[in-house]
Amino acid sequence: MHIQPNLRRVAAIHDLSGFSRTSLMAVIPILTTMGLNVCPLPTAILSNHSQYPDFSFLDLTDEMLRIIEKWKKLDIRFDAVYSGYLGSPRQCEIVHDFVQYFRKPGTLVVVDPVLGDNGALYSKITLEMVQQMRKLAACADVLTPNLTEAFSLLDRPYQAECSHETLKELISGLAELGPDTVIITGVPVPGQPGLTSVIARSRTDRRTWMVTCPYLPAHYPGTGDTFTSVITGSLLQGDSLPIALDRAVQFILQGIRATFGYQVDSREGILLERVLPLLKMPIQSSSYELI
Ligand code: PXL
Fold this sequence. Notes:
The structure is a single chain. This protein is an alpha/beta fold. It has helices spanning about 25-35, 60-75, 90-100, 125-135, 145-155, 165-175, 225-235, 240-260, 270-275; strands spanning about 10-15, 15-20, 35-40, 45-50, 55-60, 80-85, 110, 115, 120, 140-145, 180-190, 195-200, 210-215, 290. Helix 2 (about 60-75) packs parallel to helix 3 (about 90-100) and helix 7 (about 225-235) packs antiparallel against helix 8 (about 240-260). 3-hydroxy-5-(hydroxymethyl)-2-methylisonicotinaldehyde binds near residues 50, 85 and 221.
């Protein structure tokens, strides 16, 4: 008898930023802890993420094509393709082609359209990048923009405070681009400065979910990568969308709480290494609601 390990494999297409806990430095430990086999396809190598005023940047567009060729020869099967920060607009097309080639029935395609935050695009992100990301979003099963990215993808001016109606409009607009499930993160709760929320809707399910949690007044880069990694791991282990949302929100909150009490430079991100073991635990509390 040959018992198979029943491993699930994820192609993780993100940059590698050496210092601080963004992109692959969050994706690999989280998905590995959640029991998945991660295959990184690096898009760029940076000394540190691009919210610092200065960083080195090696664009790996050409190398990606060489890696993909070898992966095709190896006939690798992926249970999920998960992309995040891309190093050039051309890479959006490369990832799009990657999805077309490696997608099989049941493959989960997650696109985190990493473009900006707090109402502004990141320093290396051009309008061409936004346009190409829009096309890549079309092939996603799950799209996870923050509020800034949601407005950019729809070419609408950023608005920090949104009513439920505006949020539903944003989700519908993004769903029209193609993805089945749209999750918008970092959504302020009107009139409640002590709260933040995520909103999600799946076209097939036709319900809109909201999870709120306490807002702590600090900005930690990489929380978007952490959030979408937990969502990806959670959906791959068979959780429903609202449970995946709860799990990801709880984990981010635990990470921020583990970090906030120290006087560390918030640009280094949350102390991920302190909270990773929590991913192995059953979900502690559930607070999703329908809106
Ligand atoms: O966390 C998103 C992210 C990923 N990769 C790079 C970034 C950022 C956000 O600043 O700069 C290089």
